[in-house]
Each structure stands twice: as C-alpha cells, then as structure tokens.
Amino acid sequence: MRQGRQHLLIGFLCTVGCAAWQPTDRIRLPTPEPLPSQYTFVRGQLVFHSNFPMAPHHRLVEELVARRQELTDRLGLPPEGEPVHVYLFDHLEPFQRFITQRYPQFPQRRAYFLKTDTTLAVYAFWGDQVAEDLRHEVTHGYLHAVVPQIPLWLDEGLAEFFEVPRGQRGINREHLEFFRVRFARRDWQPNLERLERLNRPLEMTADQYAECWAWVHLLLEGPPVQRKILPRYLADLRLTDSTRPFRWFLRQELGQPDAQLLEHLQGLLKETR
Q: What is the Cβ-side half-sphere exposure of residue 96, based on CA atoms within 13 angstroms?
C-alpha cells in the first residue's frame, strides 16, 4: 500500500513541470542497514557474521559451541543439524536500524531468533549482555535445527534455562524472584495447559516465561526419574511429530506434576535464600 501511494505522488509531481526528473530525484529512501558480513567464520554448527573483527576462539564462541554438546547430552538430541547463522552488529544503533527497517512490527529487544523456510538466524549486537542474549537465542537455533515443531512454551523454557552461564544449574534468579513474591502472596498455581496454548512468542508475558523455565528446571534438575522425561518426549516429537499435549505425557510419567513443580520451586527458594 505504501509503495502504491508513493507511486501516485511521484506521478502527480511530474505532471506539473518536473517530467524530466526521475522518481529517485524526488524521493530519497533511507539507505538500508546491511547485514554484518565483513568478517565470517564457522565453528561447529554456528556460522558467525560480524562487522567487526572477532576471534574464532573467543571464550563466548567456545561456550556457544560447547552448549551444543550439552543439549545433545542432556536432551538426547542428534549431534548434527542445519547451520545456525549468527549476525553480530558492533553497536546498538545499526542493530536497531536493521531490525526497524526489516521487521518494523517487532518490539524492541536486545536479540532475536528468526526461522524461515531456508534459514535459522540469530541477530544481536555486542553489548554488555551479549553473552546472555546469545546463549538464549543460539539455544533456539540448536533446538529448531533438529526439532522444528517444538512447542513454544518448551522452546522458551529451554532457552531461559540455557541462557544461564554453565555451572549454575540453570537457576534463573529473575524467575526465582518472581516465584518468591508470588508464593508470599499465595496467588500463583501452575497452569501447563495455558502454556501449551501459547503460539505468539512476541506476546508472552514475564510470568509465562517464568513458568516455562520452572517446568524445564524441574525436568532437567529434578530427581533422575524426571530427567528422563524430556529426552523421551523430544525423541517422540522429532520422530513422529506427535501432537499429544505434553501435559498428557507428563501425567503419565509423574502422576501429579503440578504438586511436584510447586515442591521443586519451594526447595529452590529455600536453597537460594
């Protein structure tokens, strides 16, 4: 619609004495912000593109590469997968210009993961929180490379878990503080059915992110019997594209999953006082 209006405006201007001018003489569109492409290197499944020099063996790169093996080991995922392209801008401003020009409907975020029919891509800028941002978004990339139909709540819960630095057992302090407040007010209960209805990541709320993380933490850091559930579910999803709700699968395994989640969170809160 916008292009059509510009075309009509140009046509009107040229009929009143400016016929010799070309349309580009009348309307100068902003130069599109390019994707970072000056420097490129490959590490494992990740293809890094940046507009500043970056060491292929930078400690953050090493951490992201190692994260792939951790996902393989803990979730039983296959070690192979399609490439994940990581586009890194040197500053916030060119990153924001690129996102605004290409995806004007997006809310402002520090980083994004985008999946198309042909590409898995992460967009971020080199800021103070780049390590957390890349751990989160690259986790999305690794997951979608092998489980393209992963439910949104589980996708986000795993990304929230694995955005935490290694050695911290996936404990997300921000989410724990949310539960500390809500438990004190006695006004929160798990609702996995609500999470399973989510299908628009850009509209998720903070409490939904917190609950997604909580379920994943229970299943990855709970007793050994619970740690076997996610690998089995993801294998079923990957091989059969099962449409069974996870809550059905979970009840078969745990009986009363809501009670176990509440107990797990209360234990974490006591542990982290």
A: 8
Question: Tokens standing for 130?
Answer: 């780049």
Residue 60's CB is within 10 A of a number of other CB atoms, namely 14
- pTM for the model stands at 0.86
Cβ neighbours of residue 146 under 8 Å, at least 6 residues apart? 77, 78, 80, 81, 238
Give the Cα separation of 210 and 228 in Å (integer): 22
Packing angle of the helix pair 130-146, 59-75 (nearest 10 deg): 40
121-151 core/surface letters (b: 16 or more CB in 10 A; e: else)? bbbbbbeeeeeebbbbbbbbbbbbbbbeebb
Determine phi and psi for 115, rounding to 5 degrees: -120, 130
What are phi and psi for residue 166, nearest 5 degrees? -60, 150
Question: How confident is the chain (273 residues) per 10-residue block, as mean pLDDT?
Answer: 28 28 47 90 97 94 95 91 96 96 92 94 97 97 94 96 93 94 92 92 89 97 90 88 78 87 93 82
